[in-house]
UniProtKB/TrEMBL annotation:
Residues 9-205 form the Ketoreductase domain. It is an enzyme of class 1 (oxidoreductase). It comes from Alicycliphilus denitrificans (strain DSM 14773 / CIP 107495 / K601). SUPFAM superfamilies: NAD(P)-binding Rossmann-fold domains. It holds the Pfam family adh_short. Its EC number is 1.1.1.35. Belongs to the short-chain dehydrogenases/reductases (SDR) family. The keyword DNA-binding does not apply. Keywords: Oxidoreductase. The keyword Nucleotide-binding does not apply. It comes from the Bacteria. GO terms for molecular function: (3S)-3-hydroxyacyl-CoA dehydrogenase (NAD+) activity. This is 3-hydroxyacyl-CoA dehydrogenase.
Length: 305
């Protein structure tokens, strides 16, 4: 039998009780990985707690002949993130990959957003990914191998209404991933991001009050979470050894390599600039290259194929 893509690698997938996380856990197990299925079993806003979702995914994996263990610790606390990594070591003896997928939403227009709504979302997405990566980093360094896959979002990369907390965390995650890649490259540790387009419980919170919103949600529902999983499996495999510090997006059957900020245009004045000269000459020269006030849906405007 041919060697499977991630045979005997031990991978932690956070937020793996449903949606994209579940599909990644199932796909990793099918490709030979031993999986720690982490999910605290809360609602999309982070309320309540239930061991059921993670355990159910573990049972699915085992029924298919794979190896998995459930974990219910929260990524939003450093000590708990440490326990998630320790769970992999206790059950499988090592750790080879981390998928930072856990997330919650507290959507609100910025001028109405509460401190708690900001805090809760940044804590899970950005701090949670940092805590998980930091807990695994020393193990990766010692064994001189390891891979991180972080789930970012076009809400951060491009923009969206009512998601300042989520967008800030998701774009921060891109910079975190790049820093991890730069700092740990010498230990053969890789770090990449995926911006997924997929119907999930989180997107299920999008309002459907108007026909336009209903049509948009209907399009998103076509984009099933299992379309994301193949890229995650690949990035965690040795076949991706030369892929590092990149940002990908997956939209149905399309995989995109996303740009990262670079200079677009410059203006120079040998005498230096005054505010008046900037107003009269500098800014008008730059204006034609301004980045437009687009949202994710404006940039990815065509129907998924």
């Amino acid at each position: 039998m041919a060697q499977k893509m991630v045979q005997d690698k031990v991978v932690v997938v956070t937020g793996a009780g449903g949606g994209i996380g579940r599909d990644m856990a199932l796909a990793l197990a099918a490709a030979g990985a031993k999986v720690v299925v982490n999910d605290i079993g809360t609602s999309t806003t982070g309320e309540g707690q239930d061991a059921g979702p993670a355990q159910k995914v573990v049972e699915e994996i085992r029924a298919a002949g794979g190896q998995a263990v459930a974990n219910m610790d929260s990524v939003a606390e450093a000590a708990a993130a440490g326990r998630i990594v320790q769970c992999a070591l206790d059950h499988f003896g090592r750790i080879d990959g981390v998928v930072n997928n856990a997330g919650i939403l507290r959507d609100r227009f910025f001028h109405k957003m509460s401190l708690d709504e900001w805090d809760a979302v940044v804590k899970v997405h950005l701090y949670g990914s940092y805590y998980m990566a930091r807990a695994a980093a020393n193990h990766f360094k010692e064994q001189e191998s390891g891979a991180f896959v972080h789930m970012t979002s076009t809400s951060g990369l491009i923009g969206n209404f009512g998601q300042a907390n989520y967008s800030a965390a998701k774009l921060g995650l891109v910079a975190l991933s790049k820093s991890i890649a730069l700092d740990m490259q010498k230990f053969n540790v890789r770090s990449n991001c995926i911006a997924p387009f997929a119907w999930s419980r989180m997107i299920g919170s999008i309002p459907t009050d108007t026909p336009e919103q209903q049509a948009r949600v209907a399009k998103i529902q076509q984009m099933t979470p299992n379309k994301i999983a193949p890229l995650a499996v690949y990035l965690l495999s040795d076949a991706a050894k030369d892929v590092n510090a990149q940002v990908f997006a997956v939209r149905n059957n399309e995989i995109f390599l996303m740009s990262q900020p670079r200079p677009v245009r410059s203006v120079h004045r040998s005498e230096g600039w005054t505010p008046e000269f900037i107003a009269e000459h500098g800014m008008p020269a730059l204006k034609s290259s301004f980045v437009p006030m687009e949202r994710s849906g404006d940039v990815f405007s065509w129907d998924p194929v």
